[in-house]
Amino acid sequence: MATPAPAKVAVIYYSSTGTNAALAKEIANTAEQAGAEVRLRRATELAPPAAIESNAAWAANVRATADIPEAAPEDVEWADAVIFGSPTRFGNVTSQLKQFIDQLGGLWAEGKLADKVYSGFTSSATLHGGQESTLLALYNTVHHFGGILVAPGYTAASKFVDGNPYGTSYPLSLGASPGPGALAAVAHQARRAVMAAARIRPLPLTTRHIKEPAGTSAGHHAVAGVPATGPEEERYGYELPAV
Ligand SMILES: Cc1cc2nc3c(=O)[nH]c(=O)nc-3n(C[C@H](O)[C@H](O)[C@H](O)COP(=O)(O)O)c2cc1C
């Protein structure tokens, strides 16, 4: 039997002061050790260089991670599993990561974001500072993608240490850098995403263009102002095998 191709994992994160960068690197290293092909990518900075330079920690992180390529939509298209990371800001995903995600509309319209594994991680200043709301806000988007959400749950001992079944989260109140507990939790999340991607990939879930009867999406077209394409409307959808 031919050896299956390795699962492709994209780790796409934003980090101002290095916490999420450290978590992202641990995920990337662990996924690689688990046999995956990995792309570690950072979301583009939106602030002007002067603002970054005026914050020593931010400037140091930008310099330390300058060799990590910026994320591009193609990285998501390429991946079987996408693991997103973002600091918690006001209980939500950072605008920097969201700016990247909002560039994925074209791939979404083609059905190319569906059927991939997605998972997320975050950090915050305080223990109850909104990590779970950040991850749940991130996961709203995964539902729109038609993605397969693989949260860690309490599937390893490390999850009873970081205590967050929604994804790995690290509160800076525990110390400036993620310690062994957070690194173990994030490594478990990486292995779980690789395992899920490897299992899901062979399933015949690939989206294809199919013809649907006229009027099937009339409501959608009316709302979106998109003209119907003819008597049959060509949209992405599934040709599921008989079970
Ligand atoms: C604008 C802003 C909003 C923030 N909002 C929160 C928050 O709601 N809860 C919290 O605990 N920390 C909050 N923080 C702290 C960040 O979560 C913390 O600095 C971040 O996790 C560090 O991640 P990084 O080192 O990867 O940039 C906020 C920070 C900024 C700059």
Structure description:
This protein is α/β, with parallel strands linked by helices and 243 residues long. The protein folds into two domains: 8-200, 3-Layer(aba) Sandwich (Rossmann fold), CATH 3.40.50; 208-237, no CATH class. It has helices at 19-33, 49-53, 56-64, 73-78, 95-101, 105-109, 131-145, 159-162, 180-200, 218-224; strands at residues 8-13, 37-42, 81-89, 92-93, 117-124, 148-149, 168-171, 208-213, 232-237. The strands form two sheets. Strands 1, 2, 3, 4, 5, 6 and 7 form a seven-stranded mixed sheet that branches. Helix 1 links the parallel strand 1 and strand 2 (37-42). The chain is globular, with a radius of gyration of 19 Å. The protein binds flavin mononucleotide. Flavin mononucleotide is lined by residues 15-20, 87-91, 123-126, 129-130, 172.
Silhouette = globular
CATH superfamily of the largest domain: Flavodoxin domain
Number of helices: 10
Cα-atom radius of gyration: 19 Å
Q: How would you state the average pLDDT, rounded?
A: 88
Element string (H = helix, E = strand): EHEHHHEEHHEHEHEHEHE
Outline the low-pLDDT stretches: 218-226
Our measurement of the CA-to-CA distance between the termini, rounded to an integer number of angstroms, reads 25 Å
Instruction: Predict the CATH topology of the largest domain.
Output: Rossmann fold
Features:
single chain; 243 residues; alpha/beta; Rossmann fold; 2 domains; seven-stranded mixed β-sheet; two-stranded antiparallel sheet; 10 helices; 39% helix; globular; binds flavin mononucleotide
